[in-house]
Amino acid sequence: MRVSRAIILGVSLLLAACSGKEGIRHLSSNGDGPDEFRILPSKPLETPQNYTALPTPTPGGSNITALDPKGDAVAALGGSRKAVHSTTISKSDAALVNYSGRTGRSANIRQTVAAEDAEFRRTKGRFSNFKIVKEDRYNEIYEGQHLNAPREQARWRAGGAKTPAAPLF
């Protein structure tokens, strides 16, 4: 009786360990159905005032009924919808952009950071793939990079910085 329980327990642990590799924060669905977060309602069709003044169609480009969430948000907050899609830097932001790039800029920074993060996750997650129960590995891997808010607040206050808006921990 005890031997059969041990065998059943051992087989179940073995099967649990053979589950597929999903990486950290695997959030996609397993089904073949549509992803409900990718479906966006379109704007209603409108009859133009002048058919000759319509823009020429651009394959792969946007149309009049296409949604523009960033532009809609900027317009709702009182900004210019054109500024969202502009590739030039506005005069008000030029000083900030120049200051942030004072030590140099890298054109491929996203690829560099992605490669460094993949290497970091590879070294940190070497032995964490062997789990009995599936769990979210994100917090486990990046635990050393989390900000301890109370300790940071105490450090700033000990240095003489005033933090009146921050509650006391």
Automatic annotation (TrEMBL):
InterPro entries xrefs: DUF3035
One matching Pfam family: DUF3035
Name assigned to this protein: DUF3035 domain-containing protein
